Amino acid sequence: MRKIFIGLLLVAGLYTNNLLAQSPITFVPAKPQPDSAISFTYDPGTTALAGLGEPKAYAYLLEGALPVAQEVKLTKIGNLFKGTISTTDTTLAFFLSFVKDGIRDNTKDFGYYSYLYTIDGKPLPGARKSIGQVGLNYGDVWGLEVAAATANTLIKEDYVLHPALKEQYKADYLNMLARSKEADDKALLSATLERMLVNTATKESDLLLVKNLYTRIKDANKAAHADSLMKARYPNGSWVRSEQITALAVAAQAAQKAALYNNIKAAFPPVTKQDSALLSNVVSEVAYAWIEEGNYAKAQQYAAQISQQRIRAYQYIAIARKLAGDSVNAKPIDGKTGKALAEVSLKIIQDEVDNGSSDKTSYYTNAQWREFMLRSRGSFSDTYALLLYNLGDHKNAYTWQQKAVADYQQNNVAINEVFAVYAEKVKGPAAARHELETLVKAGKASPKMKAQFKRLYLAGNNTENQWITYLSELEKEPRARERAKLAREMLNTPAPAFTLKDLDGKDISLASLKGKVVIVDFWATWCGPCLASFPGMQMAVEKYKNDPSVQFVFIDTRETGNPDNIQKEVSALVQKHAWPFHILMDYDSKVIDQFNVPGIPAKFIIDQNSMVRFKSVGYGGTPEELVDEITNMIEVAKTGS
Fold it and tell me: For the segment 589-600, what is each residue's pLDDT rounded down to a tens digit?
């Protein structure tokens, strides 16, 4: 579940340090300068972390293309926590994020942040832009979803105050104009691109930028013109390699990709670290293509050419998975080779766990990166265990799967599921039942695990009714934990008012549904994850069909074409699948824009007073998991706890 980001609140006055005046955090000094230590005091008493104990604090320094993470040591003084952030001479601004037991405090998703200031107390040039720009691209790092319009306002404000930034951050500036819906910005973008086109001194990289922006605003003729100018002026430019890489990406067959890779490698031997990383990505794509075609020897041959050892390990383990048979009790294709590749991969990833990595992403702290590597090790251990199991070494398979479960801290349900199978095979029904009970009670069990658990439980001369009672009791605690977590994270934002027609032509307004908990599901006919989520949503609709206090509406949006054709396509799809959904039509996508939705599927849970309480974006689980998520959000929205 991902929460909504209300937006970076812009208050009157250009030099206000936004959001800090009434927040649970204070900074000393109030207007910090670069290359200094900044102290803060944090009071979680009125936040989502109230009463949870000492949180972890992370600062994200905004001083370049990516945020730079810094774990902050906290000192408890009474009910308050104090910490210090160390900035550098290039830091423009920073975010702070607090986390405890998987719960974030982001001041209801406004975010804790501060600009850094000049000696005369004004935000540094680029400080506002860094908050908006990095927020647009990396808000997920600290659990925020930045409203694009609000982020653009911050960015634009900085360019107005500091015109020199337009040239310093040319690509960001022009992309801001391209995102804007204001006529003046569109005209300014058009004029700027035209000037860059006619200027014979325009660099290759700028002509590529012009081409990409014309493509973005759907001016194919101007994009083609920019492309031809770039190639004419720079016949041996970097575009040559880029076009070959693009050709490789769209090539249909692995052999074609391999031939293109060999050409690229010969024509553009790596000189810099960036060149090597780029070539690693290219050859990795070739190796994956051979995997898809089932030529694992070729896949191994190309994976061996990947210079970055961590990426090479991921490729080897992908091959090993296929050679294992890719499922429990499958016949291995080549167990011996797969086992050897898995062992090499495990050795590489263990080195990353023990010694860190030179290519660690900057917005991870060392501790966070190690946790990420532990999860990778868990995934590798899962594949190694599968190889052992399918080769008949069940005992060692159980041991390695147990390690995989531990590395994921029980949070990977698919790995837990396989572990339960191994446990029954190696340790017997009683031990497997104990493991399953532990995982169910922790809320870490899949439907398949519960079915296995039920079989083992009933085999002990228990009745169906006893099973229902027993399972309900075991699930009571994790359900309560999840709902308590949701209650802490609950939003309280007015839902945008809307009126849309349904497939029968009837007007349906949000106002007409006041008094009900409303689940709004934004979807589209072309959206694979949307359609994949519908079996779970259908189960949720069926679950609440007799509850008059709950209403589901499915808003079709972001379609192309005229409304009549869109309606026919949607109606045909609904009839084909017999979905029991109340479909509303957002033909011009205005409603989804009002909800500031970054992608679909997106689900909003709106309470009886038309307040947004929860937001969930994307889909990647099982129908049963989705039903549980929706159920918990509905029930918390009903009661507020």
Answer: 899 988 887 789
